[in-house]
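dumping the sequnces here before i forget
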Amino acid sequence: MVRENEIRPSEVAVDPPPATDAGLVFIGVIRTPWGSRLLTPRQGRADGPVCRIEIFDPWREALQGVEAFERLEVLYWLHLSRRDLVRQSPASDGTSRGTFALRSPVRPNPIGTAIVTLAGVEGSTLLVRGMDCVDGTPLLDLKPDRALFKPIAPPQPGDFEVG
Amino acid sequence: MVRENEIRPSEVAVDPPPATDAGLVFIGVIRTPWGSRLLTPRQGRADGPVCRIEIFDPWREALQGVEAFERLEVLYWLHLSRRDLVRQSPASDGTSRGTFALRSPVRPNPIGTAIVTLAGVEGSTLLVRGMDCVDGTPLLDLKPDRALFKPIAPPQPGDFEVG
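..and the predicted 3d for all of it:
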């Protein structure tokens, strides 16, 4: 079971600095079948239920052309997650590992990423499969899946650097 | 050439709401060979130069176990990017498309994502290949590549839902 907000044996919390280095704007909301963190998938699946990504004004015009991509990368704000754990115990078994070695929603900056398949577009709402978040999760960004996107800008020197 | 901060013909800017819905903390810094946006790769490459991801206190302990993953997902803050364009013209050719149909750094929430290969660990610094950002870019998050990570938490009902 996912945590509500408890700390488990072997976990380590820190006293984090204030989260004021940069600010986010919620650009939409994600509608899923899961009303509680205790029900959500641990990871999305490509054959999962269709979820709705609703885009707010003034960002709707930014959707133009998105229908050309079969898969999208979605970034969202895990608004229910604590942010202060550096070691976590997902199995609650007395062992823990570092937050950066986990895909847990509990992170210093609780940003989730998903690769979804686009099932349809209804006005400024996208229908997608592959989400794993609770209903009402704030949306941060949408991009074409990196594997499907070819840069349009002219080449830059760094494009050709290997090491 | 990437933009400095100009608006090009056919692009559309909006008057965005204040970016105060949530706050970020910079957890580290990314050191790359590219001192200007005019030099950076448009996308990272797996055989690109080794870059350094330096983790700040108090987050260093969160690295424990990260060396087990050959590839990591990196989230970073594109601190030089404007945030108000909903249509962009990467080719500067008089045509534009929606921001969400591009992987441009110019976005309402300018968060970059990269999949990098881990080339080494030196204390609280990771050596990685595959970055595409300017030197000094603030770090937001590190996670195992989704394809390499198996959830440790016990199964949840949503894991089994298809649609």
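The first strand of chain B starts at residue 12 and ends at 13.
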